[in-house]
Amino acid sequence: MTLINGLKQLNIEYDEQKLKQIEDYYNLLIEKNKVMNLTRITDREDFYVKHVLDSLLLSQIINLSDQKIIDIGTGAGFPGIPIKIFFPDVEITLLDSLNKRISFLDEVIEKTGLKKIYTIHGRAEDYGKNPEFRESFDISVSRAVADLSVLSELCIPFVKKDCFFVAYKSSEIDKELIKAKNAINILSGSDPYINKIKVPCSDIVRNMVIIKKKIYTPKLYPRNPGIPSKKPL
Ligand code: SAM
User: Relative to the CA of 55, which ligand 1 atom is closest?
Assistant: First the structure.
């Protein structure tokens, strides 16, 4: 009931097929988590709240209809997989530097029968320079990957001009925002707009940080793998 309650609170449509896809995803996650490190959240209700409903918060701030999205550092598929399940007409790319996690996601995609969803094993720093991916997405999203200054360099290059980078952040964000100001500016992002949203069926409050890309990102960025985190802009 927690999942359905939460979906109702978020005004998100669901049906038997979508709920079955979530169950298949959960079962596979729990099974594979025994042999590889995918998540610390294994309780079913916690999975619904802290992974599924939390991931779906993006739909509360942007109309997802027909959007082309990239999830940077997707890990076990958050927020990308729940978004794809409940908003099937989005096109989504899941990128992660750990191949084991990408193999797991390929299994999830096969098991759930999701379409228009792609996985990439690689680093954001490399793919952000690749002309096939650079400045070609409507939205880049990321949850629990890095500080906002580092994340901006990893995520903003993927976004088309006038489109959005959205970071899922915790309630403590003020210092991070100040530290990231310079990076966001260099990478052609707008001043961040913060949308505070409560995760349904919990006391958790998320800060969704929304940055619009004003002009093209300078060719110099992203820098080589590892440099954004070693020497944040
Ligand atoms: N987004 C997921 C979530 O919220 O549960 C996973 C978060 S996990 C803590 C961070 C993930 O980011 C890891 O799977 C890691 O391999 C990936 N990652 C970190 N730096 C990366 C980079 N530069 N390029 C691609 N993936 C990266």
Answer: 4
Q: Choose the CATH number for 2-230 among 3.40.50.300, 3.40.50.150, 1.20.1330.10, 3.90.226.10.
A: 3.40.50.150
pTM above 0.90, yes or no: yes
User: Does the CB atom of residue 128 touch ligand 1 within 6 A?
Assistant: no
Mutation probe of ligand 1 site: the residue of 145, 168, 204, 229 with most atoms within 8 A of C-beta: 145
State the closest ligand 1 atom to the C-alpha of 225, by its place in the atom list counted from 1. Answer: 23
Above 90 in pLDDT, residue 50?
Answer: yes
Ligand 1 atom closest to Cα of 228?
Answer: 23
What is the SS3 assignment for the chain?
A: CHHHHHHHHCCCCCCHHHHHHHHHHHHHHHHHHCCCCCCCCCCHHHHHHHHHHHHHHHHHCCCCCCCEEEEECCCCCCCHHHHHHHCCCCEEEEEECCHHHHHHHHHHHHHHCCCCEEEEECCHHHHCCCCCCCCCEEEEEEECCCCHHHHHHHHHHHEEEEEEEEEEECCCCHHHHHHHHHHHHHCCECCCEEEEEECCCCCCEEEEEEEEECCCCCCCCCCCCCHHHHCCC
User: What does the pLDDT look like over 172-182, one tens digit per residue?
Assistant: 899 999 999 99
Q: 134 CB less than 6 Å from ligand 1?
A: no
